[in-house]
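Q: C-alpha cells for this one, please.
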Amino acid sequence: MEFRPILSALLRNKTGPLLVALQVALSLAILANAVHIVNERRAVMSRPSGLADEHAVFHIAVRTLSNATPEQQLADIRRQTEVLRAVPGVVAAAQVSQVPMSRSGSNTSIVLDPRQERSSTDISTYVSGDSLIKTFGLTLVEGRDFQPQELVDVNERTEDVYPPGVIITKPTADKLWPGTSAIGKTIYFGVGADAHPARIIGVVENLISAHAETRERGMHSVLIPQRQYGGGRGTLYAVRTEQGQRDRVMKEAEAALRKSSATPMIMELGTTDDDRKNRYRGDAALQWMLITVSALLVLITCSGIVGMASLWVTQRRKQIGVRRALGAKKTDILRYFIAENFMITSAGVFGGVALGLALNQLLVSKLEMARLPAGYLVFGALGFWLLGVAAAYGPAWRAASISPATATRSV
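A: Here is the predicted structure, written as C-alpha cells:
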C-alpha cells in the first residue's frame, strides 16, 4: 500500500488528525509516568518491615494517672513487662521507644569520623532495655544480640548515657561500609565535639523506621540497649504473640495491666497491620487515583479514535462506494483506514515519548522521583499502536462493508 496518498489526504485536512495525535501524545506521556508512579508507590507500600510476622505484633501505650518518682516508674516498667509476658500466647514483650511505621519516633545523625562536619546518614533509634530481636522476631545476619549486662537502665531526667555497643540494620551497614563486614566498626552519634562512639556488635537484616521514609533512609535503624524511664511521657510496649492469637492476647493484656495497677491507667492499643495501613493510606489513595485517571485516559483516547474514524467513514461514504465500484476489495478499504489511523497514532506516539520524557524530568527535578525506565515508554507506545488499530477496526470494517450501489446511488 502507498502511504504517500494517505499522507497527502491527511495534510489536506489537518485539524482532525492533529487533535487525535495530540490526544494520543498527552495520554501516552501521562499514562507512562502514572504507571511508573503507581509501581513506585506499590514497591514502597510492600517494603518488608523486618518483623518476623507483622500480623502477630501489637503495641500498648500506658500512662499511669499518678505522680510517680523515676524509681517508681522504673519499677512499674519492669512489673508491667513481666505482666505482659505472663499472658498466655505471648512470645515476647519489651518496653520500647518507638514501633515501626507508627509515624511517631525519633531519628539521630551518625558519622564515621568525629571530625566530620556533615552526618554520614540519619538513623532511626529503637531504644529498649530488652531484646528487640526476640520481641520483633528480627533476623540476625551478623554478630550477636545484646548480653544481659549490656542492657542498662537510664534516667532520662538526670543521665545522658551513650551505649558502648549497638546493633544496626543491613541497609545501614551496606551504606556505611559497602562490601565489608560492619562488625567491630565504630559509629559516632552526633557530629563534631559532641560525637559519641559506639561499636557495632550485630547486624539485623532489616527494621523499617517509625516514619518509614520512602527513600533508603527508611531502612536505616539502630538498636540501643537502654531501658529509659523518668521522662513522664508514659511507656510504650511492643508484644509479639503466637500466630493467630494476637486479638485475644490484646484484650487479655489490657485487662491484666489494669488489674495489676492500683492506680487508674490510660492505655492505647494498636497493631502493626494498622500502622502499615495508616502510614501508607496516602500512597494507596494516590495509587488508585492514578489508576482511575489512566483508565479514563485510555477510554477517552479510544473514544476519540473511534469517533474520528466513524466521522471519516461518513464523510467518505460516496468515495468508498466509487472505489468499490471500480474494483477495490473490502480488504483494500480496511487496510486504507487502518493505515491512515496507524500513521496518526504513530505521530502521537512519537510526540508522547518526547513529552513523557520531559514530564518525567520535571517530576525528577521537583519531586525527587526516580527516572522513567525506557520500558514504560516502549510498552506504552506498543499499547497505543494496538489501541489505535483496535479502535479504528470497527469503523474501518463498516466502511469496507458499504455496498457500491448504496454509496453511489446519489452520485
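A few notes: The chain is about 50% helix and 20% strand. The chain has a mean pLDDT of 85.
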